[in-house]
Each structure stands twice: as C-alpha cells, then as structure tokens.
Design brief:
The protein is of the alpha/beta class. 36% of the residues lie in helices and 16% in strands. It has nine helices and nine strands. Strands 1, 2, 3, 4, 5, 6, 7, 8 and 9 form a nine-stranded mixed beta sheet that branches. Strand 5, helix 7 and strand 6 form a beta-alpha-beta unit. The mean pLDDT is 91.
Length: 270
C-alpha cells in the first residue's frame, strides 16, 4: 500500500473530537483519544441505538462491497474511510477479486498512520491512501488516477460521511460532482444519519457535536434520496441501513431488528 497527501500534511489535533475517532470508539475500537471518548459516551447516553446503527452500517458496507465485487467491479474509491476496522473494504473486495484496486481517503492524519500500518493489498491488486477532504473533490479525483482508471467503472463509497457536510457547503453538489467524474456503470454506495423518528434525541446529539466543534446534519429520507438523483437504484434506496439488500424490491420491516438511525442505498450511474 502507498500513501499520498497534499503539500502541507495536516497537523494532528487531539484537543478536539474527530468523527472518525468518535466512530471508532462507538464500534469498540481503541484508536481514539479521551476527547473522542467523551463525546461518544455522551452521544450513547442520549441514544444507545447509535452503537447498533454503527455496527449495522458497517455490515451494509460489507454487503454492498461483496455484491459489487461479485458483479464485476474492480475499482473502489472510499472517501471518509475512518479508522481501519476488519474486514476493511479492500479485504472484502480482494477476497472475491484479488486484482481489485482500492483508494481510501480521509482528512484525519491519524487515520493515515493506521492505514499505512494495517491496510495491505494482495499482490495482484492495489491499495492506496490519500489524506484528502471530500470538500476538495477535484484533488481526490486527480490523485486517485494514480491507482484508478477513471475510464472504467468505479464504486464510490460515502459511508456515514455526508451528514458532516452541511447544505451551505454544497453537500449535494459534492456527491453529484464526484459521480460526474466517474465512468458510466460506476456505483454510489451511500449511508447517512437521519433524525426521522428520533427528532428530540437527534437535536441533542447535534448540539453535542456542535460543542465539540463538529457539524452534524442529519437528513430526512427525502433529503437523503436527493443524493441518488440521476442514478439507478440497486435494490430499494434509500432504506433503513439494516434493510438494504441488492435483490430486495421494497423495504421489508423485521420487528426483531434493532432500531437504527441511518439510511443507506446503492445505485448505478447509467
């Protein structure tokens, strides 16, 4: 695996929580700091279902990546990858197709350090890491071309990322612009936090993140659906993250499923 960053690497700031490290704590990881743990514990005190949502969200990534690899996708661009948590995307893809090429990006340099140490490609494939921010899509696309052939289909993964991008930062334009840069036959793998059904808890969680210097913007199902504009859904999209299956015709409710606060979906660029 190789790593690339911009000309001025970001200095690690452990005085403020970072979404990737908060998420790591929620998933039971150890690669976080007291400031991240403090925020995560406060969030879980307000809404304990966040832990189930994070775990099930991870399983959605597993299912979507496996389906894509079995369907012939050999190139993956994962933006906002977060702290490595096995099985990682490249492990799933390369287990099925060892020649898969995967590019990870995140704006937390701590994630880069863990990625350099832990993310190893198969000899036939490639695994690459970029220190980059989704708000700079042009830079991501330019650097990704060292590993990915953008004349061929790419699976773009934005897993639990865009709820940290407010409308005023052009959240929809960022996603649509990234998909515009990819070849026909590319896919969007997407999940996003919602306040639907838990508005009071979500408002308190948003306030906690704001106090920590992090913007959190949960969106309704209709708002999440706008990210898929112009794409062809594979299975229903968006649906609650626990209910997505590539062969499902509609969302099937399972009473035994834990409540989740995330919508997800997979869609193809025609």
């Amino acid at each position: 695996m190789s790593a690339t960053s911009g000309p001025e690497p970001t200095r690690i700031d452990t005085s403020r929580p970072h979404p990737a490290r908060v998420y790591d704590y929620i998933l039971g990881g150890k690669n976080n700091y007291p400031v991240d743990e403090q925020l995560a514990v406060q969030v879980l005190d307000i809404d304990p279902t966040v832990r189930d949502s994070a775990r099930i969200n991870r399983l959605f990534m597993h299912r979507a990546t496996e389906w894509l690899a079995r369907s012939g996708t050999r190139q993956f661009l994962d933006i906002g990858t977060g702290i490595p948590t096995e099985p990682n995307l490249h492990q799933i893809a390369q287990r099925i197709a060892p020649d898969s090429h995967v590019v990870y990006t995140d704006n937390d340099p701590i994630v880069l350090r863990h990625a350099e140490a832990l993310l190893r490609s198969t000899p036939e494939g490639a695994t690459h890491y970029l220190e980059a921010d989704v708000r700079e899509p042009g830079q991501i696309i330019e650097l990704a071309t060292d590993v990915l052939d953008l004349s061929r289909p790419v699976a773009l993964s934005l897993i639990s990322l865009m709820h940290f991008i407010p409308d005023e930062d052009g959240a929809y334009d960022l996603v649509h612009g990234l998909m515009d840069a990819l070849a026909p036959g590319s896919h969007l793998v997407f999940s996003h936090a919602t306040a639907d059904g838990s508005e009071e808890e979500a408002e308190r969680v948003v306030s906690l993140y704001r106090k920590g210097g992090v913007t959190l913007r949960p969106r309704t199902r209709a708002e999440v659906a706008r990210f898929f504009h112009g794409l062809e859904p594979v299975g229903p999209a968006p649906v609650l993250v626990s209910h997505w299956r590539p062969d499902a015709e509609e969302e099937e409710l399972a009473p035994e499923d834990p409540p989740v606060t995330v919508y997800a979906g997979l869609a193809r660029k025609p």
